[in-house]
Amino acid sequence: MVDVASLGLVALAALVAAVAIAAWLLARTGSERATDRRRSLERHEEARQRDPPVDLGDERVAVVEEFTTHHSGERHAMCRIEGFVVFVEDVPDDLEETEAIRLKILSFNRGHTSARARFLERA
Fold first, then answer.
1. What angle do CA 122, 99, 61 make, to 5 degrees?
2. How open is the CA angle 52-86-67, to the nearest 5 degrees?
3. For residue 5, is pLDDT > 90?
4. Distance from CA of residue 75 to its chain's centroid?
5. Mean of the pLDDT values across residues 43-55?
6. How many CA atoms lie within 13 Å of 29's alpha carbon, on the beta-carbon side?
7. CA angle 100, 112, 60 (to 5 degrees)
8. What residues does 102 pair with on adjacent strands?
9. Burial annotation 14-40 (CB, 10 A radius, 16+ → b, else e)
10. Does residue 20 sit in helix, strand or coil?
11. Does 1 have pLDDT greater than 70?
12. Between the chain's N and C termini, which has fewer beta carbons within 10 Å?
C-alpha cells in the first residue's frame, strides 16, 4: 500500500520544482526583453547623434513604407532614407505602400530626427 504522506512529499517536491523552473524561465525572458530594450535605446541615441543623410533641397528616391494622417488631416507617406524617417506631403490619393517615389526635402524637425518632403513623381 502507498503511504499518503509520501505522496504528499512527492507532490510538494514536484510543485517546488515547477515553480523553480517557471521562475527561471520568467527571469530569462525578462532579462532578454530588458536587453532588447537597452539595445533599442542605444540605437535610437546613436541615430539622434548622426547627421541626417539628406540635405535641404535634396531630391531623392524612396519607397513608401506606410501612410500617416497629419494633424491637418492631410495624408502623408512615410519613407526612410538610410533609416532616416521622411514624411512626404502632397501624395496622390492612389499612391500605395511599397511604391517608389521621387521627393524633395523641405525641412527638418526640431531635433533633425526626421524630415518633411514634397512628392514630386512616381519613380
1. 55
2. 160
3. no
4. 21
5. 84
6. 6
7. 25
8. 61, 121
9. eeeeeeeeeeeeeeeeeeeeeeeeeee
10. helix
11. no
12. N
Write the DSSP symbol of residue 54. -
Q: Which amino acid is at 41?
A: L
Q: Which residue stretches of the chain are H helix?
A: 4-49
Measured between alpha carbons, how far is residue 79 from residues 35, 63, 110 in Å?
28, 6, 19
Write down the domain spans for the chain.
1-49, 59-122
Output the CA–CA distances (angstroms, integers) from residue 7 to 1, 4, 10, 18, 21, in the order listed. Answer: 12, 5, 5, 16, 21
Residue with cell 542605444: 42
**50-59 pLDDT tens trace:** 899 999 999 9
User: Which pLDDT tens digit goes with each residue over 76-104?
Assistant: 999 999 999 999 999 999 999 999 999 99
**Mean predicted lDDT score pLDDT of the chain:** 89
Chain length of the chain: 123
Give pLDDT tens digits for 59-69. Answer: 999 999 999 99
Three cell numbers written together for 106: 523641405
Output the pTM of the full model: 0.65
